[in-house]
Amino acid sequence: MGALTCPAAVGITGGIGCGKTTVVNAFAALGVPAFVADSVGASYYREPEFCHTVAQTLGSDLLATPDTIDKERLAQRVFADPAALASLNALVHPRVMADFDQWLQQQHTPYVLFESAILFDCGLDSRMVATIVVHLDKEERVRRLLLRDPLSVEQIEARMARQMPSDELLDRADYVILNYEGNPRQRQVRYIHQQILSRINYSS
Ligand code: ADP
């Protein structure tokens, strides 16, 4: 049976700036590989053909140059128009999941992480054996993002406003990692790692 040879998938999510990448790196230190779905999806925009398809589907006003998409304008468009969001998702999501499935077949660990900021929004959690939410309050996320990215507070808050609220994320999570400074992140990660390993053993 194919399922026995493929690792289980554990979803990891959280709002921008909460520390997803940092936590994924902590799992990597334990030998757990990660598929970063948002980066894979973002990489498609480097292909002119993909940008042309997006422009044909959602409007040529989204082109920044003949071969590139204005990502900020695209984000504003799909945030304001659910039908446009559904059309964009239909272009991106099946391809990301096909890339994930292909990648998964090359992994040989008991489980892998599937990182996506929109794990729950898109119902991808249904494919996961468990979900992890990385949590941090909004003020601290803004503070860290101002150090990380060339964005203004207004731009950061606009991005946060497009994401699922923290309460809802926490409500849906199987595991939560509190990524406050000084919190023993590595210990939380080790604990969840052990929990996931026994969860997989019990269910197989
Ligand atoms: P995300 O991937 O969720 O957007 P990152 O992992 O990039 O978030 O973290 C956002 C910023 O906060 C980064 O600059 C990172 O180095 C920093 N950061 C992450 N975790 C901590 C922590 N526990 N203490 C202090 N800074 C942190």
Plain-language structure description:
By secondary structure, the chain is an alpha/beta fold. It has two domains: 118 residues, 3-Layer(aba) Sandwich (Rossmann fold); 52 residues. Helix content is 54%, strand content 14%. It contains ten helices and seven strands. The strands form two sheets. Strands 2-5-1-6-7 form a five-stranded parallel β-sheet, with helices on both faces. It has a two-stranded antiparallel ribbon with strand order 3-4. A hairpin with a 2-residue loop joins strand 3 and strand 4. The longest helix has 23 residues. The chain is globular, with a radius of gyration of 18 Å. The protein starts with a helix and ends with a helix. The model has no long low-confidence stretch (mean pLDDT 93).
Key traits:
single chain; 204 residues; alpha/beta; Rossmann fold; 2 domains; five-stranded parallel sheet; two-stranded antiparallel ribbon; 10 helices; 54% helix; globular; binds adenosine-5'-diphosphate
